[in-house]
Amino acid sequence: MRLSSFFMPTLKETPAEAQIVSHRLMLRAGMIRQSSAGIYSWLPLGFRVLKRIEQIVREEQDAHGAQELLMPTIQSADLWRESGRYDDYGKEMLRITDRHERDMLYGPTNEELITDIFRHSVRSYRQLPQILYHIQWKFRDEVRPRFGVMRGREFLMKDGYSFDIDKDAARRSYNRHFVSYLRTFARMGLKAIPMRAETGPIGGDLSHEFIILAETGESEVFCDRALVERDVLQEGIDYAGDLQPLVDSWTEPYAATEDMHDSALYEALPAERRVQARGIEVGHIFYFGTKYSAPMGAVVVGPDGQDVPVEMGSYGIGVSRLVGAIIEANHDDAGIVWPDAVAPFRAGIINLKPEDGDCTAMAETLHGRLRSAGVETLYDDRPERAGAKFATMDLIGLPWAVTVGPRGAKAGTVELKRRATGEKEELSLDAAIARLV
Ligand code: ATP
Ligand code: MG
Ligand code: MG
Ligand code: MG
């Protein structure tokens, strides 16, 4: 992609309305644009990152056996009257009336809708377990939408739902999600720590929030350093086997948000293992039994021929919030530092002197060869000052930058820079390409 034609409206000034670094950087890099309070358009650079994150979420859900579907954003109020939540949900719910005066709403979550699909489709315990998920926009009329996409009103969520015949089976579905969430966030370069959570308005008796540590987090959290240092991607995972020992090993060390905090337990930890920090909630899993299946009549015929309400859980990931959260965890004074797995492009190409024939020939060759090799690049071919080009590359945070200058172009070399470390290397064109594919 050529930067001269790429739609990336960067800002020179730091937007005054943005209170936290991820919001400032997303606006400055031209990733998003606010259309009204807490509602954003995703411009091409931001949309690329959103899709990368969505794809990692999808792969890890599919890997543990969840099936993707797509439910609508607009729902009928009647379903929510059946569960009793239509009145309980309050002002966070955006209520809509259609031309026939029917009460509709923009879904803030989908327990009712998925339970309705399930009860019309599944009759026997033999068809269980079922785990269904979708990645869809939600609307919550937050009292204080703020921090850009971190607390929006319209936001993208992965929400999944499990249906099982009994508590033991439901626990297995819960464990699959627990482990897949650890992997999902780790693949994005994040350390997300599972913390026992209150079950809140969804109700039920087992729940964990997945929290990443960042100064700008909205809640105070406490945990054992052992959890921060652990790397789940190094641990073999067999979804067909018993996940309980693995889940136990993650839930035994102390970890709690302020609502669930037990200072006596925490202070019993050796001082060097105590971590007190601010946290951002990026995922949340619940087991809530028959809270929806019982009132809504989602029953299956059990092994003894009797109808039993199914045991359910629900599992959310804040896909759009993650874009901001990843920046909170990965930036420096010059801008964003994307982890490789979610970067909008793998590398930038900086042509220092587009008016120099050798430079341009080499930059064009590089751009073409990387494209043929399947490496996505953003090629800065604009007639700008070198300083401005370096600043733009640093701001948008691509993992690698390849600089082509007049001296190197004569000698057949380029400079390869790693954004995360600032390390620079002079390499032949072939060696630089080999490094990036
Ligand atoms: P919060 O405590 O931040 O208000 P929540 O507990 O209300 O979030 P859940 O109902 O657990 O949210 O939804 C699942 C996930 O959706 C959350 O873990 C979070 O990552 C994301 N999410 C929730 N509300 C928002 C929002 N307003 N903007 C962006 N993402 C959100
Ligand atoms: Mg909330
Ligand atoms: Mg919460
Ligand atoms: Mg939550």
Question: Quick one: overall form?
Answer: globular
Terminal CA distance reads 17 Å
Largest sheet: 9 strands, mixed
Taking pLDDT < 50 over at least 5 consecutive residues as the criterion, the unreliable ranges are none
Total DSSP E strands: 23
Rounded radius of gyration (Å): 24 Å
Fraction of residues in H or I helices: 25-40%
Bound molecules: adenosine-5'-triphosphate, magnesium ion
Structural class, by secondary structure, is alpha+beta
Residue share in β-strands? 25-35%
Number of helices: 15
**Average pLDDT across residues?**
96
Structure, described:
With 437 residues, the chain is α+β, with helices and mostly antiparallel strands. The protein has 15 helices and 23 strands. The strands form six sheets. Strands 3, 7, 8, 9, 10, 11, 12, 13 and 16 form a nine-stranded mixed sheet that branches. Helix 1 (21-28) crosses helix 11. Bound molecules: adenosine-5'-triphosphate (ATP) and magnesium ion (3 copies). Adenosine-5'-triphosphate is lined by residues 109, 140, 142, 151-152, 155, 157, 281-284, 316, 318, 320-321.
In short:
It comes from Marinibaculum pumilum. Helix content is about 35%, strand content about 30%.
Descriptors:
5-stranded mixed beta sheet, single chain, alpha+beta, binds adenosine-5'-triphosphate, 15 helices, binds magnesium ion, 437 residues, 9-stranded mixed beta sheet
